[in-house]
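Pilot study result, target chain (243 residues):
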Amino acid sequence: MDGYADPTLTRRTGLPLLTPFGERLVEMRAWTHAGRWIGCGTLRSDDGIRPVVLVAEGQEPTVDVPEGSSWVDGVVAVTGQGVSGMRSIDWAETETRLGTALPSDYKQLVELFGHGAFDEYLELHVPGAGFRSSDLVRNAEWLREWAAGSRSGLWDPYELYPAPGGLLQWGSTEQADQFFWLTEGSDPDRWPVLVTEDVPDSWVRFDGTTAEFIYRMLTDRRHPFSTARYFDRHWFASYEREE
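Predicted structure:
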């Protein structure tokens, strides 16, 4: 953008679209299709700024997840997310405010990824997000207060946490899908995931962890909320700079 090229780009993340043009390139927007990159942008020429379109061979969208890896490792691998920086979260304070421990793999995801959205679709709610609706704690508090004064039945047949076995939201989409843990039992690592769309009685239950849900969403075309049906490559869009 504006003549600046991300120095961390690799063959897997779009470098083939930049290589032919060097410093002449002003802007490049990219799409993927199977093993190819499709780019549309502008470059400087003797005649001024001119448009350019390029199709370049990319890297096949294979994911190397070593045997025995965790679901979190799988999410990191499939998104190409670097793990050089770990975010420091005061989990003791967060869990005290909520009144419950949280799933361990969710905490790992937050430390690795921060606030953002997988495939710019599933937004991960995190402690301390800039907006109330994206803040794990503040959103839970607001929903609890709102539900106490409303009889909307939005979450029937379930109740919101802190009701025993209640729903605790950890994610959402722009399409008004909501992702919850069903806080049944004393072990958060065994909480199932429940998802509801913006229509009545649309609950889908997933008996697995948060990281497994996200990994399968990114890689399994049969997953009910699959993004693998639409994208050959997957990414995590960070929202942290916007806050």
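One observation from the pilot: The chain has two domains: 11-57, 71-242. A full batch analysis is planned for the follow-on phase.
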